[in-house]
Amino acid sequence: MLRWKYSRPLLTIFIALLALAPVLGSNPLSRPGLQQTMAVAFIWGGLALTYDLLFGFTGLLSFGHALYFATGVYVTCILINHEIVSWWLASLISIAVSALLAFIVGSASLRTSGITFAMVTLAFGEAGHVILERNFFNLTGGENGIALNADLIPSFWISVVNTKYIYWTALAVLVFTYAVIWWVTESSAGRVFAALRDNELRVQVLGLNTQRFKLLAFVISAALAALLGDVMLLAAGSAAPRFADAGVTISLLLMVVLGGAVTRWGAVIGGIFYSIATTRMQDLTQQDSFKTIPKWIGGPISEPAFILGLLFIFVVMFAPGGLSGAYYRLRLKAITKKSQ
Amino acid sequence: MDTFILILITGVGLGALYFLIASGLSLIYGLMGVLNFAHGSFLTVGAFVGFWVASKMGFETSMPEFILAMIVGGLAAGLFALLIEQLLITRLYDRHIDQALVTVGVSLVVGAVLGGWFGNDLRMFPTPSWFLTAIDVGGAKIPADRAVYIVTAVLLLIANWALLKFTRIGLIIRAGVENRNMVNALGINVRRAFSTVFFLGGFAAGVGGVLVSVYSNGVSPLIAGTYLIYGFIVVVIGGMGSVPGSFLAAMMIGIIRQFANYYATGLGDFVVVILLAVVLLIRPQGLLGKVRA
């Protein structure tokens, strides 16, 4: 009802344009620099979407989502660097490992709910972070992480000239993630997820195993996060503990809330915007004109967390639903006006 | 034997730091259902204000000066907590997820402001010189600052217990943790209890902030990081809303972590998380927590 009738064809054209941009003559996207920025932004968009499946659609406030993303990055990197399997098989294995890990962690932490669940997932996520930093068996490289051995991945992903392939890969994986999440949330299991978020007791009364459905959402989003981690490994060229930091999950939360939960596109836009904003803001604050601002206000502004944090507080307090929520409110107003 | 005592007392000292954070978290959660991610920023605010007071005294402080810095830091953090509660939390009455989200925003903003003003490097905290000496306990040489952590934590535990047990507001807080709707229905204003709990939690975290900066050899906007997470773990293991539970769990985790780290380097954090998982599986409400209806 609320969907604008042209949105789907326009979106298709837009994605096609994004895909063709690197080879369509001279435009900003034919530069490797912007291709790299956009590839990373697409990955964050996809990751925010997997978080939306948990937080928005199923109502599970997890603070440990970064763990599964990092599992994708690390498992693939380790398998490739030790020449155990090819990139393709390595990423498949990393997805399976991530799903298994989510199954184990989810089984324990889903015994709690609500705010306790948030704390418990945070604890497990941080444990993962600590383990990666400790460099057990010399596998994870400790605090410095490990560089991906570029000789062992398909050659079209290597070197700056080929950044467009990473860009395309990231775009394709984002579209794939979107498709999977769309399919899951529109399926009958997706209806149960939404029901769990709105009224868990009722789902229980209907005779469904609520635990099993929550675990399903948890595992699906973890598997997709690992896939996005595989692409991040290509874009970043290394696996570092910062991918497992609790800060990552908090960023995801910001992305979803700013873009608007439960609308799918809101999370994607939120992720892309957030990723670009944090990289661009640092460039902006390096400029000379910025140095004229007094330090007591310029100092905080140069930290992306300052503006994003304020924006986040504002959205939670005064504009619940974020960007996409505001859009649908406007649409609703327009439609009711028309029908009167 | 002396190594054993050293690790044990260091563990208790670490546990004392965890307790200072967890006690506030636990009461705030128990009474209001708020998962307070801003608690780490209360700690940092207390640490910086305490640092400001202490550095006025020079590179070294006498014990009364250090205690003054600790109290001023605690008060500043308490007032800051009160401000956040009045300005943001009360407006999101009973929207627990949104309350948690807002506190995440607060922690980001506070971190960015302090980082922008002071940078993220550690600054030496001026302490009394005898903090660096060792106390002899049964043959073991214990760093003297550990004793300060433990004494502070025990004093705060006693003060907390006395307040909850013997004052009217304490009675309201205890009743509110038990059944908030009933307290409301009896015509008692629970809101004042909320503010009290936020102030007390902020105070304890601020005092903890000063001690944490002594323990980590300096002040920086990043010192709160792991302590907040350990605070959460302590609250879950000890039982939400139970201050004695937090104390017990904090000591347990401090000691276990130190021993695990001594006998298997780096395994401490891992063991703590395993412990958390075990407690959740056997006793989801925590050691001293009550089952919620």
Describe this structure in words.
The complex is a heterodimer of chains A (340) and B (293). Chain A is mostly helical and 340 residues long. Chain A has a single domain, classed as ABC transporter involved in vitamin B12 uptake, BtuC (Orthogonal Bundle). Chain A contains 15 helices and 2 strands. Chain A has helices at 7-20, 32-57, 66-81, 87-109, 114-134, 163-186, 188-198, 200-205, 210-236, 246-259, 265-286, 288-291, 295-301, 304-318, 322-339, and strands at residues 146-147, 238-239. A two-stranded antiparallel ribbon of chain A has the order 1-2. In chain A, helix 2 packs across helix 10, helix 6 (163-186) crosses helix 7 (188-198) and helix 10 (246-259) runs parallel beside helix 15. The relative contact order of chain A is 0.16. With 293 residues, chain B is an all-alpha fold. Chain B has one domain (2-282): ABC transporter involved in vitamin B12 uptake, BtuC, CATH 1.10.3470. Chain B contains 11 helices and 2 strands. Chain B has helices spanning 2-32, 39-55, 63-89, 96-118, 144-166, 168-178, 180-185, 190-215, 224-238, 243-263, 268-282, and strands at 134-137, 140-143. Chain B has a two-stranded antiparallel ribbon. In chain B, a hairpin with a 2-residue loop joins strand 1 and strand 2 (140-143). The longest helix of chain B is centred in the first third of the chain and has 31 residues, at 2-32. Classes of the chains: A mainly alpha (340), B mainly alpha (293).
Lay out the secondary structure.
The complex is a heterodimer of chains A (340) and B (293).
Chain A: H1 7-20, H2 32-57, H3 66-81, H4 87-109, H5 114-134, E1 146-147, H6 163-186, H7 188-198, H8 200-205, H9 210-236, E2 238-239, H10 246-259, H11 265-286, H12 288-291, H13 295-301, H14 304-318, H15 322-339
Antiparallel strand pairs in A: 1-2
Helix pairs in contact in A: 2-6, 2-9, 2-10, 2-11, 3-4, 3-9, 4-9, 6-7, 6-9, 7-9, 10-11, 10-15
Chain B: H1 2-32, H2 39-55, H3 63-89, H4 96-118, E1 134-137, E2 140-143, H5 144-166, H6 168-178, H7 180-185, H8 190-215, H9 224-238, H10 243-263, H11 268-282
